[in-house]
Design a protein that fits this description.
Blueprint: H1 15-20, E1 25-28, E2 32-35, E3 38-39, H2 40-47, E4 51-55, H3 56-69, E5 75-80, H4 87-95, E6 99-102, H5 105-113, E7 121-123, H6 130-139, E8 143-146, H7 149-162, E9 166-173, E10 195-196, H8 197-208, E11 213-219, H9 230-248, E12 255-257, H10 274-285, E13 291-294, H11 298-301, E14 305-315, E15 320-323, H12 332-336, E16 342-344, E17 354-360, E18 369-377, E19 384-387, E20 409-413, E21 416-421
Parallel strand pairs: 4-20, 5-6, 5-13, 6-7, 7-8, 8-9, 9-10, 9-11, 11-12, 12-13, 15-17
Antiparallel strand pairs: 1-2, 2-3, 4-14, 14-15, 14-19, 16-19, 17-18, 20-21
Helix pairs in contact: 3-10, 6-7, 9-10
Protein name: Diaminopimelate decarboxylase
EC number: 4.1.1.20
Subunit structure: Homodimer.
Length: about 450
């Protein structure tokens, strides 16, 4: 759950506790903070800061853990591309057997370039354009998740005109509160997503009679960064009831897209349990002869990424520690009041008496703040830090606000690392811009 930074207290983990809770991180007395087998200072020496760093091993390990939890279920993992859409990340998951959940033409094309087969791609999203629907049908993807009656009619018309049959699932809105941040909850009646639960049965029967459409099942997604299994149990229970009702009316229902949203621990807590999540699936859909789909995103990639930054200066009687990373790089704290662990890269900077500081960026917005009243050892100009758990909704949501070029990205795999995105050049910021002749 996105949480406003707390005042210093015993509830806030210190540097050692943050590292101990993350098996992919370690602090070496000489090399400093190490991710997998690579000291992060080594990458910062080459790339400078700010810079993103991802751990391939962590992604594979978390996908393996998630997949193992689903054992015994007829279930497939579709990685939620919106969490981190870099081609190298998609290639890692494709190589490990995951499909993709996409929400735009760009994500669909990225998934295909990364090697994910059309049969393992599901297209979600509340506002698919005609162009996107045509592309999805031309590619022959597994399923379009329909969000409204208007979209269903649109898909029918386009598919008929292309002489194709669109496999669709109706995304229902179960009116379940996921207990997460208001900006990332998607399963309540007042949210823009999905078809009202009471309308779904009639619309499903209608879909069965439309040309160019084959209804195959239902879909739902109730939000992101969900830490309790109770909302899943409630939503899946309602979905199972609807499946039984649809079948009783003579409809064919073979697929259930169960969404994602499983939360991670941004402090020193373990986050949500894939085993408990799988238990909710078994309780609701066990014995129903359904092919299940799941759409984890943050849970797979969030802990696998860090944002490296350097201290520019300390001001205000050492109250404000100003970094060279900013809200244009990692917007989650500014947008959601999200809490991220912050750890010095040098072993010597990670020890010593801790005091409360505000960790801020250089952007001209008060909201450009990563942490308030954070208890950290003293940091001086030039010190480097890692902002933890930045692998999801980090680089993918970054911008060039204040004409700040996008940061480079490195990928670690064991003791190897490579640059997978170069630092954007200043001239590239305006490369596509034109000054009209009448202003000359």
């Amino acid at each position: 759950m996105s949480v406003t930074a707390l005042a210093p207290s015993d509830a806030e983990p210190d540097v050692a506790e943050l590292i101990a809770a993350r098996p992919h991180l370690s602090m070496n007395a000489l090399d400093g903070l190490t991710l997998e087998g690579v000291p992060l200072n080594r990458i910062a020496d080459v790339l400078g800061t700010p810079a993103w760093v991802y751990s391939a091993g962590t992604m594979r390990a978390r996908l393996a853990e998630f997949t193992a939890a689903l054992a015994g279920l007829d279930a497939q993992v579709h990685y939620a591309v919106k969490a981190n859409d870099h081609l190298a990340v998609l290639r890692i998951f494709a190589g490990a057997g995951a499909g993709a959940d996409v929400v735009s033409e760009g994500e669909l094309r990225r998934a295909r370039v990364a090697g994910i087969a059309p049969a393992h791609i599901v297209f979600s999203g509340v506002g698919k354009t005609e162009r996107e629907i045509r592309l999805a049908l031309a590619e022959g993807i597994a399923q379009l998740n329909v969000e409204s009656p208007a979209e269903l009619e649109m898909i029918s018309a386009i598919a008929s005109g292309m002489d194709r049959v669109a496999r669709v699932a109706l995304r229902i809105n179960p009116d379940v509160d996921a207990g997460t941040h208001a900006k990332i909850t998607t399963g309540k009646a007042e949210n823009k997503f999905g078809i009202p639960y009471a309308d779904a049965a009639a619309l499903y029967a209608h879909a069965a009679g439309l040309p160019g459409v084959e209804p195959v099942g239902l879909a739902l997604h109730i939000g992101s960064q969900i830490l309790s299994i109770a909302p899943y149990r409630a939503a899946y229970g309602r979905a199972a009831e609807l499946v039984r009702a649809l079948r009783a009316q003579g409809n064919t229902v073979t697929h259930m897209d169960c969404g994602g949203g499983l939360g991670i621990g941004y402090r020193d807590d373990p986050g949500a349990s894939p085993a408990a999540f799988a238990g909710a699936l078994r309780a609701a859909f066990g014995g129903m002869d359904l092919k299940l789909m799941t759409e984890p995103g943050r849970w797979l990639v969030g802990p696998a990424g860090v944002l490296l930054a350097s201290v520019i200066l300390v001001k205000g009687s050492e109250r404000f520690v100003v970094l060279d990373a900013a809200m244009n790089d990692l917007v989650r704290p500014a947008m959601y009041d999200a809490w991220h662990g912050i750890v010095p890269l040098a072993a010597g900077n990670a020890v010593g008496p801790a005091g409360p500081v505000d960790i801020v960026g250089p952007v001209c917005e008060t909201g450009d703040t990563f942490a308030r009243n954070r208890m950290l050892p003293a940091l001086s100009a030039g010190a480097r830090v890692a902002i933890l758990d930045a692998g999801a909704y980090g680089a993918v949501m970054s911008s060039t606000y204040n004409a700040r070029p996008q940061a480079p990205i490195a990928l670690i795999d064991g003791d190897r690392w490579a640059v997978i995105r170069d630092r954007q050049l200043q001239t590239e910021l305006w490369a596509g811009e034109r000054i009209p002749e009448f202003l000359e």
